[in-house]
């Protein structure tokens, strides 16, 4: 749980306009982390945009995996029923349960699935093998940093405990591995038939 002194003298919370993400008033780090914690929403918007404009079957499958991951998160929250730290600190919290962290589970699903896609699905398309590997490694490091910052933001802003973040990351990573291999082994062979429809 959060440290007692964090909960006993809660700061005044300020919401980012048009969202319900709150950060301690006057805290620039908190404000930055509040914006970072919105990255899962940006990922969802990106998926919808890609699906509408490209209609690529693997992207649709990836998005279905994200939605299934969200469903698993909802089920786990209602089975475990672990409360959030500093109950009542925030004025707008949609779910009373914090285990596992939804943001953490979603971002780690996205990142682990993307890692698997980068290293197992994408094939070398030219002779620049060194450059190809370099950009994959750089992108992987950036994604790992993003997932870490999103996860940390949820603890810093007192929405979750470290254990809720950790188990969210484990659940999201596990779901990503399962969904990636299901997509590769079961769905990908069906893609040509589906595309012919």
Automatic annotation (TrEMBL):
Family in the record: Belongs to the dolichyldiphosphatase family.
CDD domains: PAP2_dolichyldiphosphatase
EC number(s) given by UniProt: 3.6.1.43
Any matching Pfam family: PAP2
Its job: Required for efficient N-glycosylation. Necessary for maintaining optimal levels of dolichol-linked oligosaccharides. Hydrolyzes dolichyl pyrophosphate at a very high rate and dolichyl monophosphate at a much lower rate. Does not act on phosphatidate.
Name of this chain's protein: Dolichyldiphosphatase
Residues of the Phosphatidic acid phosphatase type 2/haloperoxidase domain: 59-180
Gene that encodes the chain: DOLPP1
Pathway: Protein modification; protein glycosylation
SMART domains according to UniProt: acidPPc
Record carries keyword Transmembrane helix: yes
Annotated organism of origin: Xenotaenia resolanae
Annotated transmembrane regions: 32-53, 106-122, 134-153, 165-182
Taxonomic superkingdom: Eukaryota
Classification via SUPFAM superfamilies: Acid phosphatase/Vanadium-dependent haloperoxidase
UniProt-annotated location(s): Endoplasmic reticulum membrane; Membrane
Membrane topology annotation: Multi-pass membrane protein
Keywords noted in UniProt: Endoplasmic reticulum, Hydrolase, Membrane, Transmembrane, Transmembrane helix
Major localization listed first in the record, in broad terms: endoplasmic reticulum
Catalytic reaction(s) noted: a di-trans,poly-cis-dolichyl diphosphate + H2O = a di-trans,poly-cis-dolichyl phosphate + phosphate + H(+)
């Amino acid at each position: 749980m959060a440290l007692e002194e964090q909960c006993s003298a809660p700061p005044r919370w300020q919401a980012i306009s048009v969202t319900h993400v709150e950060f301690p008033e006057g805290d620039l780090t908190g404000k930055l982390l509040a914006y970072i914690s919105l990255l899962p929403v940006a990922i969802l918007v990106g998926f919808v945009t890609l699906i509408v404009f490209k209609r690529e079957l693997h992207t649709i499958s990836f998005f279905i995996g994200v939605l299934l991951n969200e469903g698993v998160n909802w089920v786990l929250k209602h089975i475990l029923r672990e409360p959030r730290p500093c109950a009542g600190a925030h004025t707008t919290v949609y779910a009373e349960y914090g285990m596992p962290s939804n943001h953490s589970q979603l971002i780690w699903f996205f990142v682990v699935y993307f890692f698997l896609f980068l290293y197992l699905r994408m094939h070398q398309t030219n002779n620049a093998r060194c450059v190809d590997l370099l950009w994959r490694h750089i992108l992987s490091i950036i994604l790992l940093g993003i997932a870490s910052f999103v996860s940390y933001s949820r603890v810093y802003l007192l929405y979750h405990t470290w254990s809720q973040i950790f188990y969210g990351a484990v659940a999201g990573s596990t779901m990503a591995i399962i969904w990636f291999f299901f997509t590769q082994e079961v769905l990908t062979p069906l893609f040509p038939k589906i595309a012919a429809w």
